[in-house]
Design a protein that fits this description.
The chain is an alpha+beta fold. The protein has two domains: 183 residues, Penicillin-binding protein 2a (Domain 2), CATH 3.90.1310.10; 355 residues, Beta-lactamase (3-Layer(aba) Sandwich), CATH 3.40.710.10. Helix content is 38%, strand content 19%. It is built from 25 helices and 21 strands. Helix 11 packs antiparallel against helix 24, helix 14 packs across helix 16 and helix 16 packs across helix 19. The longest helix is centred in the first third of the chain and has 38 residues. It is elongated, with a radius of gyration of 37 Å.
Length: 649
């Protein structure tokens, strides 16, 4: 008899394949989906994920560009990049940073300010990034750190490039200086370049360095480095060098610039030498000056306080930034305005009794007894004030202002230096707009002799003189070439001024320096080939009261320095074929004939002879004094010792 299976066992046997089929189907769907996803990621999106992985493993880092160098017109270096040794510390490698710094300070001198700055940087930076502890250290200090490396974990000596100015004070006001990028620097830029965020990256702060920053900076390079998960550099894979900054050649003659600085030493003064043929600025001197290298390294509080508290203002560039009443050096402008307007001719005369009454006020001549009857030539030669009061009242301030601008006054000249002044050549509209007052006839009288509202910088006075000398709109040029590409000449086009009138003014300026009764006769040039034409100027910085004038005007020598008159002199030479124009301003120097004219004559001769001139170029009475002066200046111009005892070579 056949045995049957239990009913329950049969049902279980039949249901098992369906469950397995369902489970297998689910597994198949899951595996299929996973396979499809893996295929999508590994095949369809392989390039994208490969790029993401590469970016996680490789970083792009900037390579700072080499800053362009600066040369004078003869190829002498003015601004260069020199190796700079520094000590850096990596916080995570150092462990106890304070302890390491204490050990390091036993080996080499550390500046408290630099330590504080470094600690601040370490708190803001990633622990694996190097931070500078000491900059501009000596090779001896580097050696000490290297020998004691096991005791100084995380401390490493490095070498880089930093800016150096081998001419020291001579070019400080022209070239300026560089310094690390600050938050203030970045705030002035709408979209700062990434290279500006490199720690302690140097940019131009003032002067030519700042104005030509885009040319001098260059373009950063880049390198690919492999980093680990924490961002530490493991190795460099490749690099692409950047483009170095452009080299600049200045129009300045370094030797003439050095002479001008030495000749003005001891004074608060400025001098400009401009080439009448090209507009090249051969010298732009301002004294006293300062060492720009102090700012590159980070100037101390004591040094900075000494500069800012000096009454002679060494940080101010008096040659282009300083503006002064031009005094009698302005009289050529008044004369040309009157000649061009036809209100006077060269032979017309004015009687000078020592004053001119304008309304209820007397305008005095510098010579109390007056000059008598004077024409154009005599008025400039003896610097008669009354002559210019008279002709100015006839021609009017608007025409005088117009002539001023034509000759380069009241105009901001486009040269790459900091704080270039516009000066002021006022007119009726200016006073109404600025002061809300009508122009007075007395204002015209004051302006006619370069006083009152009239202001000019030494640069503007030099440009004015060059334009009178040549009859062309000579414009100043500071940068001669950029990476060997010649920059536009400043020779200029002919001025819209009657050549005959210009010639009459030039003849009068020649008399100033070469006629025995001229105000600059004692500062003349004897050599016929280089005869000089010029004009003295003395500008008041205080009001002379009626009581003082009645009792006798107090001499400059008897006044405090700050209340003495400014001394000015402008000149060009040779008279027959002008090569250079020179302007000198000596702050509170007294009379222009005594304080400014001799300096301008000496600088002019140095330029004309391209070096020390022979004694025969000077008046006989001055030769012994000039001989001693030349010896002294030659000594002053030799390289001086640096604070570390090394020569400034």
């Amino acid at each position: 008899m056949k045995q049957r299976k239990p009913k329950s066992q049969g049902l279980a046997y039949k249901r098992l394949p369906r469950r397995a089929l369902l489970l297998g189907g689910l597994q198949a769907v899951f595996v299929g989906g996973l396979a499809a996803r893996m295929r999508f990621m590994q095949v369809d999106q392989a390039d994208e994920y490969r790029l993401l992985a590469e970016e996680n493993r490789i970083n792009i880092r900037l390579i700072p560009p080499t800053r362009g160098r600066i040369y004078d017109r003869n190829g002498q270096i003015i601004g260069q990049n020199s190796p700079s040794y520094r000590i850096v510390v990596v916080r995570e490698d150092a462990g106890d940073v304070d302890k390491v710094i204490a050990k390091l300070s036993e080996l080499i001198p550390l500046n408290d300010d630099e330590i504080e700055r470094a600690q601040t940087e370490m708190r803001r930076s990633a622990p694996f990034l190097p931070v500078t502890l000491a900059d501009q250290v000596t090779w001896e200090d580097i050696s000490k750190v290297a020998v004691n490396a096991p005791a100084l974990p995380g401390v490493t000596p490095e070498v880089g490039l930093t800016r150096q100015y081998p001419r020291y004070e001579d070019f400080a006001h022209i070239v300026g200086y560089v310094g690390p990028v600050s938050d203030y620097d970045l705030s002035k830029l709408e979209d700062p370049e990434p290279v500006l965020r490199i720690p302690r990256f140097q940019i131009g702060k003032v002067g030519l360095e700042a104005k030509q920053e885009n040319s001098l900076r260059g373009r950063a390079g880049a390198k690919r480095v492999e980093v680990n998960a924490t961002g530490r550099v493991m190795r460099e894979l490749d690099r692409q060098e950047g483009q170095p900054g452009a080299d600049l050649q200045l129009a300045i003659d370094a030797e003439l610039q050095q002479y001008a600085q030495a000749r003005l030493a001891g004074e608060s003064a400025a001098a400009i030498v401009i080439d009448c043929e090209t507009g090249d600025l051969r010298a732009v001197s301002s004294t006293p000056s300062f060492d720009p290298n102090l700012f590159v390294r980070g100037i101390s509080v004591a040094d900075y306080r000494a500069l800012t508290q000096d009454k002679y203002r060494p940080l101010a560039n008096k040659s282009v930034q300083g503006t002064y009443p031009p005094g009698s050096t302005f009289k050529m402008v008044t004369a040309l305005a009157a000649l061009e307007a036809g209100v006077i001719g060269p032979g017309n005369t004015v009687y000078c009794p020592g004053h001119l009454k304008v309304g209820s006020r007397r305008f005095h001549c510098w010579k109390r007894g007056g000059h008598g009857t004077v024409d154009l030539n005599l008025s400039l030669k003896r610097s008669c004030d009354v002559y210019y009061y008279d002709v100015a009242l006839r021609v009017g301030i608007d025409k005088i202002s117009e002539m001023s601008r034509k000759l380069g006054l009241g105009v901001k000249h486009d040269i790459p230096m900091s704080a270039v002044a516009s000066g002021l050549a006022p007119n009726q509209e200016w006073k109404q707009r600025t002061h809300g007052q009508d122009w007075l006839v007395g204002d015209t009288a004051n302006a006619s002799i370069g006083q009152g509202f009239m202001l000019a910088s030494p640069l503007q006075l030099a440009v004015m003189t060059a334009r009178i000398a040549t009859g062309r709109s000579v414009t100043p040029r500071l940068v001669r070439s950029i990476d060997g590409v010649e920059q536009p000449s400043g020779a200029g086009e002919p001025l819209d001024i009657n050549p005959y009138n210009l010639e009459q003014v030039r003849k009068a300026m020649f008399s100033v320096s070469n006629d025995r009764r001229g105000t600059a006769y004692r500062s003349r040039i004897i050599e016929d080939e280089f005869r000089m034409a010029g004009k003295t100027g003395t500008s008041q910085v205080r009001n002379i009261t009626k009581a003082e004038r009645a009792a006798g005007v107090i001499r400059n020598e008897d006044l405090p320095w700050e209340r003495r008159d400014h001394a000015l002199f402008v000149s060009f030479a040779p008279y027959d074929n002008p090569k250079y124009a020179v302007a000198v301003v000596v702050e509170h120097g007294g009379g222009g004939s005594k304080a400014a004219a001799p300096v301008a004559r000496d600088i002019m001769l140095q330029a004309l002879y391209d070096g020390t001139p022979p004694l025969e170029a000077y008046p006989v009475a001055d030769r012994e004094r000039i001989k001693e002066q030349q010896k002294r200046l030659e000594g002053d111009r030799r390289p001086k010792a640096r604070p570390d005892g090394k020569d400034r070579a």
